[in-house]
Amino acid sequence: MLQLLGLTTEAAAVYQAMLDHPGHGVDRLAKTCGLTPSRVHDCLDELGQLMLVRASSEHPGQMRAVDPDVGLAEIMARQEADLAARQAELAASRAAVTRMLADRVQRRSTHGERLLGMDAIHNCLERLCRAARTEIIGVQPGIQSPDDLDAGREHDLAALARGVSMRSLFQGLARRHAHIADYANVLLRHGGEVRTAPTVPQRMVVVDRTHALVPIDPADNRKGALLVTEPGIVSALLELFELAWNTAVPLGTTRPDDPQDGLTDHERELLRLLATGLTDEAVGQRLGVTDRTIRRQVASIMERLGASSRFEAGIKAAQRGWL
């Protein structure tokens, strides 16, 4: 479990041994963990960088393990701060890409093509998948219908069979829908990679890092799409995808909730979005749920906080470090 916090298996074992046997020196730790003294020194260096060990006052020349309540909590706090910073970068990049596409979507150029209607979009996706040689990446916000997923299944599997790498990013709520989970597991079994996140960028498909397909209207992808080949826009979309991908969770795993507050990733993101001043409807659109669901989830959080109003809930959430 400690490996999720950045520790190697051996360093985690040394840390546990130090907690169990506070007086052990390097040689006894090496014997307990089945390591060489040199490797124990390396592990102590690793633990020191994470501030999980400090010089012992009782045993000069030795190190002592920092209590997990302090040391591990500080690591998690630093990781959450890093994650919040990456999410802020993702939000800024999303806004920049949206502005860039809005400036260009009204006109057709030699670097783009407007596709109107789902048939035109599916035809383009089939053409791109057949032509793919190295990589296909995709972002799927919200919930896709079984028909939409089935429309691309054959071509996705054919691309994977040719050795094309495929990374697919779904919104976290997709885990609760059997047809999406089944589709994602099919991709995994054939060598694809699938991750989920509470919020994801706008819908996109990028093939071989040269062709990108994005919706004309992010709120309704059935209105049409824009096929983009201009390197500047494709590069910006790729950067946006990588930021989202690096903060997402591989399918089949979950991020452990913080035992101190019991919030899920979804609830943390909900609080963060509400704190920026967004309405329930806007937050629901970001998270792929209805505003009624948002109100119900906020009510649940208020009950846990013992708050009688959203204002009071905001104050208490901040006091607890939830915001």
TrEMBL record:
The record, for Pfam families, names: GerE (PF00196), TrmB (PF01978)
Q: Which InterPro entries match?
A: Sig_transdc_resp-reg_C-effctor (IPR016032), TrmB-like (IPR051797), Tscrpt_reg_LuxR_C (IPR000792), Tscrpt_reg_TrmB_N (IPR002831), WH-like_DNA-bd_sf (IPR036388)
Which segments constitute the HTH luxR-type domain? 256-321
Cross-referenced PANTHER family: HTH-TYPE TRANSCRIPTIONAL REGULATOR TRMBL2
- This one is known as LuxR C-terminal-related transcriptional regulator
Report the source organism.
Answer: Streptomyces roseicoloratus
